[in-house]
Amino acid sequence: MLVHLPILQVIVPLIAAPACLILRRPKLVWLFALFASSLAFIISILLLQQVMTAGTISYELGGWSPPWGIEYRIDKLNAFIALIISGISTVVLLAAQTSIEKEIPKDKQPLFYILYLLSLSGMLGIVTTGDAFNVFVFLEISSLSAYSLIALGKDRRALWASFQYLIMGTIGATFILIGIGLMYQMTGTLNMADLAVRLPEVAETRTITTAYVFFIVGVCLKLALFPLHFWLPNAYAYAPSIVTAFFAATSTKVAAYLLIRFTFSIFGISFSFTTLPIETMFLVMGLLGIFIASTVAIYQDNIKHVFAYSSVAQVGYMIVGFSLSTPAGLTAMLLHMFNHALMKGALFMALVAIMYRVGSSKINDLQGLGRQMPLTVAAIVVGGLSLIGVPLTVGFVSKWYLVVAAIEKGWWWLAGLVLLGSLLAVIYVWRIIETAYFKAPILGQQPVKEAPMAILVPVWLLVSANVYFGIDTRFSVEIAASAAKSLFGVAQ
Amino acid sequence: MTMILGLYNYWVVIVLMMIGFYTIIAHGHLIKKIIGLNIFQTSVFIFYISVGKVEGATAPIWQEGIILYSNPLPHVLILTAIVVGIATTALGLALIIRIKEAYGVIDEDEIQAMDNQAMVNQDKEHQ
Amino acid sequence: MVGIALAVNQIKDMFAVVMLAGIYGLVSASFFVAMDAVDVAFTEASVGAGISTLLMLTTVAMTGRTEHEASHKPLLALILVAITGGLLIYGTFDMPYFGSADAAVHNHVAPRYIYDSMKEIGVPNMVTSVLASYRGFDTFGEVTVIFTAGIGVLALLSVAQRPKDDAAIEAINDSMHEKHLILRVAIKTMIPFILLYAFYVQFHGDYGPGGGFQAGVIFAAAIIMYAMLFGLSAARRVITQPFVQLLSALGVLLYGSVGVVSMINGGSFLDYSVLAADPIAGQHLGILIIELGVGLTVASVMIIIFFSFSARREYQQANKGASL
Description:
The complex is a heterotrimer of chains A (492), B (127) and C (324). Chain A has 492 residues and is mainly α. Chain A has helices spanning 5-19, 26-54, 76-103, 109-128, 132-151, 157-187, 192-202, 206-223, 232-238, 241-267, 269-275, 278-298, 303-323, 327-358, 369-372, 374-388, 394-408, 412-438, 453-471, 474-490; strands at residues 57-60, 71-74.
């Protein structure tokens, strides 16, 4: 059984999805989905343990050795990401049934869980596979289910947001397909490890440069790196709240993983960072993303939009870490992927609670909520502090490592800019906190109760994780640093 | 000269791709965008299949006596990609039907205008 | 083909545009045949020129026939297109020439597929051996993609049937479906042959072009034709919604269980050699069952999608009638 873990990681949720169609009642389907997701989470923990002790795992699908067959390759990097994805998925699912009672019509609720599980397996599949074309197939599984899930939102703008995401996402996926095709044309293989071996001989050709550019642009569309981020704010704002909680914490991490994997393990450092001015470009895009998105966030009326633009900014931080092209910079990026998942997971889950009770996520409608929903708003406070980067939270840890990595390179100005970005976060977080605690409730508005336990428990699980991993950073830092070092080592 | 002969197939495919890509971006009508997406994707498929062709070979089905076959791997990849394409198209068209019901129009600019107008109206209500 | 693409761009009558898109698909299919890609041509013809055109026409029927004066951002589009196209052309300069036999793609992984697949799997159609066995997991993903689209369309378009709608819907049905006697008789006689052909394609896919996808689409096409002629209600009586949903799930589960059984028998996921005493027999068995799973899911999802589109149209018509 243990030897099959790599493939079980993906097929447990994948086979669970159609099985849901056989059960009928939403509550049963929810329990079944929760069970499948928890299994996936346990598997990811076991896999991470295996990789930390035994090194990279390889699994041959169909019994055919690569490059003729498809290979699953688990190393520290993707075991880490798989852990994040399955963990967030399980925690979010705990609150799902309660939340969708109010946001999705009853006859569509079983379909919701099927799409959710399909999205989960799609993301896990992208992360665990060692075959380039397999990435494309699972990318489409996760994307198609994402478009459908977003379109389940109540507001009609959810439909339009989903359509825009569909168009941009499919263009991105087709660009990735072009990139893979060009790589295949020049090397004759689709297996990632094999590509890494064969690409250096053809690395000088214009075709491979074109392949790299198309692939990277496609990934950046999915990553919502400025200026290709346009689909994200509306998709996050108008999707059902629980869907946003899941995606905000996971989907951009998967795209970031693809960027790291293809740049370091496949194209190789010497190609990626010398052929094109990747460092400079990403640095500029990342910084622009941080400042422009944070500024736009300040002016938003809807908290979901605030946090969505904040996510675009956080992607900017990750890319800045990436552009440093040092192990320290990559460690900062990986750390931020983990921490951001916790931060945004907690924040959007708190929004789930607010949507459940208040029915709106406009800042103006939350006046005085601090007294009526104390635990929920406290969660937003902690999450907000984490976003800003206050010590004792995970947000501080990522920013710290990023600043240290920048200083290590002698780029003091960059460290300053990172701190400046945090100031912008203070502004938009403060707006929310001020409204919730210091403004009186609107006259005539119904008073609301605290959120139900089913939602409150997952919220505080994530919030406590924010604080716990902010204080005891051994786990996250050890894995991130170890993965970063081996990525730099592999490509040498 | 041989270079042009050897490569012009690819160039024509690229032209097709770009027409499809242009249709997606420039046109506001949602169904046309989906059709543009289709043309774009189909052209990528044509590209992949051209890569697999071997001069003077035959289809990759085993027959006694034939030695030269075209490459089956791109065929497999494109079969999958075609299916992915129709899945995306079906979802896109379903979305368009719902958008038409909700908005009454299916043109990008008109929908955007309606959304902006709705936001302006909401702001007026709050004041 | 460039001409067709340009025409699609310019013409404002959506009906014409959709038909042109269908023709584009057909021409691509013939191009694929010229490139020796017979399986691909088969699939493109049925899916790209068939189902795709059908769904688009249904959508146009529901959304209006003309495009408004919308071409508003030609400049931005032209710039983007020029950059992208230029980059691609730049990339072609180092490519191996079209059709050359010593390109990397033909010399590394492909030779084993071509020359050894008969020995290792025993199936003449090399595309089937790669699709179903060597890269069987990709195909599992593909079946899942189709299933996802089916569920997505259901989530978007399905309407809960209420009893009082039924009478209105029956009335619309009667007015919508084809009354021509000749057409009904002719199609009624053709449908069994089409279904038979679908089964032939399904099981002969090992030896000639064909396989699960193509068979599934052809099967669905027969059912769709029946629905178009005799009305959605009549078709729904034969193929009920819960039944076809169950079938779509069953196809994916069938595929997955083959993989699970392989694991139980000691091999890795989807290793067919351990399914029977003789590895070659195991391969044949595995391929047979998974292709069946593929055909099942593809056929049911295509039917689900078409039924959902049509049902939504009836729902719209019924509501329009009710509000008058």
